[in-house]
Amino acid sequence: MILGIDIGGTTSKLGLVEDGKVIAHARISTSGHTDDHAFADALADAAIALRQAQGDKAFKAVGIGAPNANQLTGIIEMAPNLPWKHDVPLARMMADRLNVPAVLGNDANAAALGEWRYGAGQGFDDLLVVTLGTGVGSGFIVNGRLVLGSAGNAGELGHDPIPRGRLCTCGRQGCLEAYVSIRGMRKTYAELAGVGEKDGILSQEGVLPIAEAARAGDTAALRTFHDTVDLLAIGLANAVCATGPRRIVLFGGIARNGELLMAPLRDRFQEVLLNIYRGRVDLTVSALPDDDAALLGAAALTTL
Ligand SMILES: [Zn+2]
């Protein structure tokens, strides 16, 4: 049994993983802990409570997925969406508290591992997994290995520069994520519809209101999807040139919009793809529940 932890900006989730399944879940607040040591204490308490609820069966390791995590050092480095603006050596902090080995990895890389081992990526040793949520993350499996790169967090497809000017959370202008994310799509819709970013249908959270408006024929909503599909297709086609995946798995809130997104995306992707790859790269949506993919992937970090 392995403990998987998924660190998010608002909430952090814990799961006990056995035989490729999450058998028990817990969650704690991330944003409520401005002190990283208090946060690590709360995580350890939640882990121990989970273990006790399973008859005190020991877990042999802890795998943690987090934004801006360097898998080579076990440190979360200045994550813009987490409460701590300094480096947090969370792998060591959890290993000390729980007395088991701990591995920390980038959250998108953890999701990629989860898809590769347990989801739509099974059997594909050249795989790209892209998470389309509040931000855009990605993880690359190449020749049967998760790519970590020199900084231990390779695969930042969301921060691919594109020739547009919108400000990104990383502080630069014109990243893919500034357009192809929940936040980005909402901004695009607001611009096209000429409304405030919380007005009209945008008073509801997420991208569902835009998807519903698009299905009802709303022009600004349809153009938002069209623009998003175009930029995402180009981003994916660029990534294919770099590592030649056989399959791409999309994951997260935006990917759940079904054929509204996927049908035009498949067409546009084939159009912009280098000819030698055309018809040779599957584009599919994750079938794993979002929470479980992240936890299974975090747990799988310990088996690399
Ligand atoms: Zn950026």
Give a topology summary.
Layout: E1 2-7, E2 11-18, E3 21-29, H1 36-53, E4 62-66, E5 69-70, E6 75-76, H2 90-98, E7 102-106, H3 107-118, E8 127-132, E9 136-142, E10 145-146, H4 182-193, H5 208-215, H6 219-243, E11 247-251, H7 259-272, E12 282-285, H8 290-300
The chain binds zinc ion (ZN).
Ligands in the structure? zinc ion
Mean pLDDT across all amino acids: 94
| Widest beta sheet: strand line-up | 3-2-1-4-7
Strand fraction band?
15-25%
Name the CATH homologous superfamily of the largest domain: ATPase, nucleotide binding domain
Task: Write a structural description.
The chain has about 300 residues and is of the alpha/beta class. The chain has two domains: about 1-105 and about 290-304, ATPase, nucleotide binding domain (Nucleotidyltransferase, domain 5), CATH 3.30.420; about 120-285, ATPase, nucleotide binding domain (Nucleotidyltransferase, domain 5, 2-Layer Sandwich). About 35% of the residues lie in helices and about 20% in strands. It has helices spanning about 35-55, 90-100, 105-120, 180-195, 210-215, 220-245, 260-270, 290-300, and strands at about 1-5, 10-20, 20-30, 60-65, 70, 75, 100-105, 125-130, 135-140, 145, 245-250, 280-285. The strands form three sheets. A five-stranded mixed sheet has the order 3-2-1-4-7, sandwiched between helices. It has a five-stranded mixed sheet with strand order 10-9-8-11-12, sandwiched between helices. The chain has a two-stranded antiparallel sheet with strand order 5-6. The protein starts with a strand and ends with a helix. Zinc ion (ZN) binds near residues 170, 172 and 175.
